[in-house]
Amino acid sequence: MVSEQVLTLGPRLHFRCDEYPPFVVHAPSPISAGREGVNTFTDSVVTHLKQHFNISKTKKDESIVTNEVEGNKREKKHEWRCIDYCFWMIGYMCTTWWLLSLVYGCLPATLFGFEAPESPGVRLSREGVTALHPVVLVPGIVIGGLELWEGRSCAEGLFRKRLWVIVLFKSSKEHLSLHDETGLDPPGIRVRAVPGLVAADNFASGYLLWADLIENLARIGYEGRNLFMSAYDWRLSFQNTEIRDQALSRLKSHIELMFVTNGYKKVVVVPQSMGAIYFLHFLKWVETPPPMGGGGGGPGWCDKYIKAIMNISPAFLGDPRAVSNIFSTEGSVTFVRALASGILNFDYLGRQTLERVMRVCRTWDSIISLMPKGGETIWGGLDWCLEQWNTYDQEISWGSNSATFNLSCEAVWTDYDEMSRESIQKVAKKRDYTASTVFDLLNFVAPKMMKRGEAHFSHGIAKNLDDPKYAHHKYWSNPLETKLPDAPDMEIYCLYGIGILTERSHIHKFSTSEKDKSIPFQIDSSVDREEEGSWLQNGVYYVDGDESVPIVSSGFMCAKG
Question: Per-residue pLDDT tens for 409-427?
């Protein structure tokens, strides 16, 4: 009887729920119940569950609930965020640009009866002008292409591929950055300048740089034997291009070679923007003896090999945008700032993108070469400036926040650390920074970068150029602290634009949000005022220039220097 009772009753199943009292169901033994007993037990369990937990939904109800859930998922799937619209807008703009460029290139020049303007090269060729002096081109910052020779595992497949200034992704940021102590290559990474004319002919499809000039020079007979692009790694300090790549030595050798192979005709050098002060550094380097860090060409080298220097938009006395670039990563061309200001509210594309750009740019010592030179003597103080507009004298000023900037007792913000909120407020308490006092500000917010820069560049005015200290290479790129070469027959020209609004100084604001820790400062685009004889737009003061370099920097040394 005992064995029969065990076979017929089987185990007991306990059901428990936190919101309901437990109950017990006796399950049939699998030996004695068979298929019918199991089915009966299943029906019994389902009935108990429905009664006990008040489950009374029909299949129709379950279907309705399921459809509602799926409908909600579909609705959520079609919800668009601002970042989606931003990506689509960028995609539409790029696609439209490429299509228009393609159509423009395919259309005949005489379409609709319009006659295409004759290029200077064609006109000069028709007039019988031919190549005479060999030409060397010296590009400026960012313009020259960079290619990867060695990198991390994330850069597989990018060997000798061009790396432009795109730092949205970790791999690009890592490979474009330099060592924050030496200013040279980080371990395991080698990025080098693209050699030859292709280094700076085009920045991207449809965005021409030196391509038009090269093409027009080719119309009158220039080619590889008498036309050379002096490519260099524009991220490095000027002396480091020689230490790491021997770029200055190769430029010297190439000029000597072109001189010999072109009938002993002197070379014409065409530097552009930062390339002008890079070549100014070269002129002093090539005359200096090797023990003093020079090229050993001697005092007469420039007069023997160089016919003329044609500077295009030279940044001899600096570019105020470099200050804002170091301070808030916004010192760039106007359309980049306009795009950045529209995406700053997006967590990833906004502040994180600018943070990545800042971390990369603060490893580039060349940016410090573009800091304003001459201090308040050239760029003005709080009550005057050379442009005679007293609203343009500050390099950086502040909006509605005021009160003292004390460097002595506050923590220093290194290139990768975060400032405390107290330190942020201390920075903003000093309302105005001029071309002289702004160096104190940058030493406070970017000490590692400024320490490297002070070893390679100077931004003052020499009182006595015969002082032996000016033989150091840090002074060679500053026209206010170095002599021109001993070359009485060498000619110097400056070609720059005028009458175009160009950035002169910036108004910044600091964010009180805890999210903006890495870049707590940004240009105050809400400040917009037009005055007679002056411009203030979107937090930027404008003056006369060529849209890139103010006329004080590009023209003063050529006219008065």
Answer: 233 333 434 556 666 666 6
